[in-house]
Amino acid sequence: MAEMLLAKGADANAKDEAGYSPLHLAALEGHESTAETLIDNGADVNAKEANGYTPLHLAGQAGQAATVEALIGKGADVHAKDDAGHTPLHMAAEEGHVAVVEALTAKGAYVNVKDEMGWTPLHWSAQNGHEAAVKALIEKGAKMNGTNQDGQTAMHIAASEGQLHVLFTLVKLGAATKVKNGRGKTPKELLKGTSTAANCDMEIFKDISLIEIMEKYLAAERGKASLLKENRVMQNDHKGELRSIKENQRKRDDSSRKIKKEVGALKGQIKAIQEEHKLELRYATEDIQEKDAEILKMKNEMIIKDERIMSLEAKPHEEMEDGTEEPREGESEVASENTMMNSNVAVLQDTIKLIQEQNTKELLSLRNAQHLKEAEAASQLREAQEALKSRNKRVKTLKRQMQEKETANEQCNSELKGKENQISQLEGQLEKKESKIKTLRSRLKERDDQIKKLEESLEALKKEPTVSPEEESEDESESYESSQAESEDEPPKQKPS
């Protein structure tokens, strides 16, 4: 991909907002071949970003040993410094990358170089507890008693940070233990103020043997193990809290499901009420339509009767105009029939009005009842929906809290696993050291036995009777004469061929 982009005219020295070039990123990620391709196409191997880091700084910090060697092979400066005076060796030592430390020192990096605060790579390794890097730097010639601007040695830095592994290594390799820093503090005084040595009487700075130092060191590590046990107890308590939270969450989920069921039942009831209202309204509408049809029928009958009355009223006038006279009895019959029809029409009109008024009243009452029921159902539905929303909010908050607790628990578990691995490693080291201690103690016991025997023999010699010098000389002369006589009696010895 890099070759294709460069072939199309991409700038190998382009930088982002932080001043990183493509070579910086390739070195940081350990892409060795990409870095070589960029350098071959004109990338500046010693380009600096905003803080003064070169690609070699970033590769050393990330522990990319192969990329470090490739960059040095392409001309990277092993003595380059950033804005704070850090070299690539400072960066690698700070992170404890032993392979990078060895690669840089093999290519000529100065092992005792100092940054602007006077810190050497050994200071940085000691601060972060990188025991292997400390050993590698000392093997490459790092000064164990070199000081920074505050007069602190690597021992001071390790003691102030509670790095007992590094302290033991430095003491074992012969670092000075009673030197004072710029504030007049010894490493022992700095160690007493750290949390690591708070429960351990560290006497590692007195004139004692390495065995006693290791015993004190192991006592401190046992204190760490007790802290890990306390951490495990706290995690168990935390798991109990999580279980209770999950149980509460389950109960709330059950209650929310019940509320949802109740809301569904209410919706069903509202739907049934609406259907019932629709049926009642339809029946009422049909009744009104039937009554309207009856009224229309009555009106038609009234119209027919009115027409008949008019026709009957018109007959006498026609007969009178024609000059024909009928008897008075016919007129009286017509008049009586007319009055009856008028009375019937009036009765029909009154009944029609009464029916219409009754229908309107019934329709209004039905509509009012329907509106009331709909309003009541809507209010119940709103209350149920609001309750459901509040429960859902509670459920979301509880789920979020449970997720946070789970993430915290996972972090604790990962830290616990790391501590357990450290404890297992330390236990293995402890077993080895205890075996050595046993052998040393057995040797000491043998020497004590020898000393006792020598003392007993010395006391026995003291108890023997003393002899005067004259007697001693006489005894010596007698022994000499006897030895001479024996030598004369014996034949001469032949020289070995």
From TrEMBL:
InterPro entries: Ankyrin_rpt, Ankyrin_rpt-contain_sf. Residues 469-479 have a biased composition (Acidic residues). It holds the Pfam family Ank_2. Gene3D superfamilies: Ankyrin repeat-containing domain, Single helix bin. The keyword Zinc-finger does not apply. GO terms for cellular component: BRCA1-A complex; BRCA1-BARD1 complex. GO terms for biological process: protein K6-linked ubiquitination. Keywords: ANK repeat, Repeat. ANK repeats lie at residues 18-50, 51-83, 84-116, 117-149, 150-182. Residues 238-259, 428-497 are annotated as: Disordered. Residues 429-465 have a biased composition (Basic and acidic residues). GO terms for molecular function: ubiquitin-protein transferase activity. PANTHER family: ANKYRIN REPEAT DOMAIN-CONTAINING PROTEIN 39-RELATED, BRCA1-ASSOCIATED RING DOMAIN PROTEIN 1. This is Uncharacterized protein. It comes from Penaeus vannamei.
